[in-house]
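Bumping with the actual sequence this time:
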Amino acid sequence: MKLGASESSSTGLSKAEAKRRLEQFGPNEPSTAKRTAPLVQLLILLANPLAIILLVASAISFALGEVINASIIITMVLLSVALNFIQTYRSQKAVDSIRKEVAPTANVLRDGRWSEIPRREIVPGDAVKLAAGDLVPADAELLETRDLHVQQAALTGESLPVEKSAPSGQSNKPDAESDLHKVFLGTSVVSGTATAIVTATGKNTVFGDIATRLAKRAPETEFERGTRRFGLLIMKTTILLVLFVLVISVFFHRPRLESLLFAVALAVGLTPEFLPMITTITLGRGAVHMARKNVIVKHLDAMQNFGSIDVLCSDKTGTLTSGEMSLEQHLDPFGASSERVFVLAYLNSLHETGIANPLDEAIKERHRSDPLDTAVLKHDHPDIHEYEKVDEIPFDFERRRVSIVVRHNDERLLITKGAPESVLSVCTSYEVNNQQYPLNDSQARVENTYRDLCAKGYRSLAVAYAKVPAQNVYTAADETGMVLAGFLTFSDPPLATAKSTLDALRRDGIQVKILTGDNELVTQHVCSQVELDSGRVVLGTELDKISDPALAHIVEQTSVFARVSPAQKNRIILALKNRSHVVGYLGDGINDAPSLHAADVGISVSSAVDVAKDAADFILLEPGLDVLHAGIIEGRKSFGNVMKYLLMGTSSNFGNMFSMAAAVVFLPFLPMLPTQILLNNFLYDLAQVTIPTDEVDETFIRKPQRWNIKLIRDFMIYIGPLSSIYDFLTFFVLLKVFLASEQFFHTGWFVESLATQTLVIFVIRTARNPLRSRPSLALTFTTIAIVLFATVLPYTRLGALIGFTPLPLTFLLFIAFATATYLLLVEAVKRRLMRRLLV
């Protein structure tokens, strides 16, 4: 439903009316976010195929009179589901609250006052303000515009920005032309400002209709791909062992129901059903830690990719330097101080309404006598109030300059400011001491002037002007035959922490590559100050002549790319990805959005334009590589804790399940009852719930980490059988030394298997000596508590109900000896398997 013209007003809405319309039209979201109700989430967990099989099995057991077995199975299922739900729900709530800190907002008129509100709360009839860098928050009709250019490639495929204007009052215009008076959700403002009235929100927008019809799953992330491959590995192993057990049971004419329950329990034991919970808790905890270090996680699954970054691409401004520009000099074409250059530059910056940038702020800020008055100069200049703005030719990244047309008395002046090489290309003369001369005669000398400034580390802009005839609209075609007035120089010193942070990033396996549109001489000067290798600088003009295969080799050997356009940045990032690098890109401008999308990990800052923040996976609340570095380390820690769970599940746990399957062949009874297997598995999983609290080895976080299915498979192949050897030793001791009954056998192996597969976490959690790497207090407590509970359980009434019997002290001593020697052997094998992690 769209709003009629009679229902809108340029005075905006009251809060009460906005609340009513929010209830009527719903939140301003193109496609409704999938917010599953807690009860539905719980039911989804209960609808897990294994949970359903167990509940059906418990129902059959109950029908056959086995009330205790049925009750135990139901209790195990409900406890597992409840624990999974509570922990996952709490972690997700914590992450959601963090994300609210960077929720997109819009400038809206409510109760007669302009204020920033969450974009999802915008309703039809709201009056909104738009400026360069803003994402258009909803479909709207323009009321007022000022040099408004909108990028709407997402809707129309147009590669260039489209100029928009408010209607002039004429009516009966064709629909195609009337779109020039409208802006749409999903587009972004490239330059200029506007005020508009919202006509449609959410699904009722043009973009919302497209999103609804073309909704599709986001591309699979590396983390999701790794989880899927791990799941397939476990599934194949589970199916193989379960079929083996069923065939053997049929061959030996074992009771069918009991054999089926045993096979199902075996499948549960092999399946890492707590993996989603452990993953969510670990990543959620990591997100909270990252928030404390001023990094906000927008997409939780991207955290693993964050830790996997091995190449970081960024501009130098705000990364190597503070990004806080200060105007140092205003010079004529030959380097002498010139007030005329400053006046022209000031008029240009004062009247520019396009993309906000620190250079314009530096020009205006340094020469104010009154900080509250943007139009008063410290120096003795003509009153700039005499100059009236006529038009603006907005900045774009191809021209790399911005022009303002001003009227002074009866004269119109077009003033251009921008990159020196760009401005010089439209100049035919230059001015020194109020005298003009042909540029051809002294072009080399003029170029040497700004090159010398750049070589000293100054950021330079050229300023030019031309007298132009009166006309309604001016375009880039009018930027011709101009007079070069001179240059402005700005200083942006390197950050005090830049060098040390670059050293830390290199130490931790991350290459930093500078991709800048700035001059190569300035870039080299800054890079040399922070000791970033800038021996070879590749320019954007060179990239245009390089093929993609050649570029793939060049990006490996080059750290600095200067004078590159947004499209060229994209090519560099894609070339790095094709070389199997995990690429992070740090950007904050309108032109950075494509690169943020192209990179494996898009990173922006809280002060960035909306377009950049929307495209990013992570938002830095403070600029700087040190904040980014801290976030990468947290990402690696989170992934490290997920890997601990996976390695445990595919080593000792797999070994115990394999032992059960093998024992079916030679034992006259089941090695453990189905309910005992389920309890064993539940206690084992419960002990690992605190893995997310554990610390991670320095060796693990000192280099990028990626999914390693080979390492997981090696743990299964080598440590799994080692666990089975100790299980078979336990079988021998139980049957030959203690002459164990069926009940004694079940009890003895339950305690031994749980002790070995649970305590092994203290060995597997670190690639180094476990005695020198202390686990977290929470992990230590839960692990030891679970082992003590399993040891004491056979002596209780509950243990008797489950089918256990008290164990003699001599057998408990055997378990202690077996567990200790098993952990020593696992430590020896683990070191060989993890040797490369220690390098």
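The tokens above came from a reply further down the thread. The longest helix spans residues 67-99.
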